[in-house]
Write a structure and sequence with these properties.
Elements: H1 2-21, E1 25-31, H2 48-59, E2 64-70, H3 73-82, E3 87-92, E4 105-106, E5 111-120, E6 138-141, H4 150-154, E7 160-163, H5 166-174, E8 180-184, H6 185-194, E9 202-204, E10 211-218, H7 223-236, H8 240-248
Parallel strand pairs: 1-2, 1-3, 6-7, 6-8
Antiparallel strand pairs: 3-10, 4-10, 5-8, 5-9, 5-10
């Protein structure tokens, strides 16, 4: 009996060792943001995206290995439509159907954001509805949808110069090639905080195009992965490490869940 028990215990120990030796499950972390704060250095991929992935990998060590991947916005949409498995970093709540009943799986909010309207401080622009953009040289991101302006843009009442780079839009604004551009407030905060060429030269309209929250968004079928990472997300607001990461980019945890 003792020998049999010893054999059983030995087998259980071996099985446990095999389980511990299993490699961590890989999760592709997709991002389509090439501007600060999400990417601050294209050469090294430095930025908030990389910092978030490093943070999650530390918290989920041994269970998941999250791999950062940059994708153009159009390719990301195509991959999601095909059902490719992965999670989207910092997905805004106003696209992809949103967290409340859309076709994808979402975590709780990572931080609050909004869509700013930015002009030169020498010629400040105050937004007063879509008609206030009529006849202005307006710049917006290629592939991005702006619900507050969508109808007027579709009807040609607002003509937008589209670019696939936020930094390029900002440079065009400062060079007087555009009158007003729309950028995420998270980008504006970082640029004002870090770039002396921007600080004092731009004006942000009091009224914006709308507020939203940033989340991690998962493809359908990734309920287990979403639930495991949601456990981490729910504790991030009170984690000094995560709060310090946000502060470094001029951001803060969401006001409430």
């Amino acid at each position: 009996m003792k020998i049999a028990l010893a054999v059983v215990l030995l087998l259980l120990g071996c099985l446990q060792g095999l389980a511990l030796a299993q490699p961590a499950e890989e999760i592709k972390a997709w991002t389509y943001y090439s501007a600060p704060p999400f990417m601050t250095d294209a050469g090294t991929s430095a930025g908030l995206d990389r910092d978030l992935v490093a943070y999650l990998n530390q918290k989920l060590a041994g269970k998941y290995e999250i791999r950062l991947m940059f994708l153009p916005r159009a390719r990301l949409g195509s991959m999601l439509d095909k059902g490719d498995q992965g999670m989207v970093l910092f997905a805004p709540s106003v696209i992809f159907g949103g967290p409340a009943g859309g076709k994808y799986l979402w975590t709780s909010a990572l931080f609050d954001d909004r869509q700013d309207l930015v002009s030169r401080s020498s010629l400040p622009f105050e937004y007063d509805g879509p008609t206030s953009l009529k006849n202005l040289r307006f710049g917006a991101m290629l592939g991005h949808v702006y619900p507050a302006l969508a109808e007027d843009m579709d009807r040609g009442k607002i003509r937008a110069h589209r670019n696939n780079n936020e930094g390029a839009l900002l440079r065009m604004l400062l060079m007087d090639r555009l009158d007003v551009i729309t950028l995420a407030d998270s980008s504006v905060r970082y640029l004002v905080k870090k770039d002396t060429r921007v600080d004092g030269k731009i004006y942000v309209s009091t009224q914006n195009l709308g507020s939203y929250t940033r989340h991690l968004m998962f493809q359908q079928g990734m309920d287990r992965e979403r639930d495991d990472i949601e456990e981490v997300v729910l504790k991030m607001d009170s984690d000094p490490v995560w709060r310090a990461i946000l502060k470094a980019y001029g951001l803060e945890a969401p006001r409430k869940r």
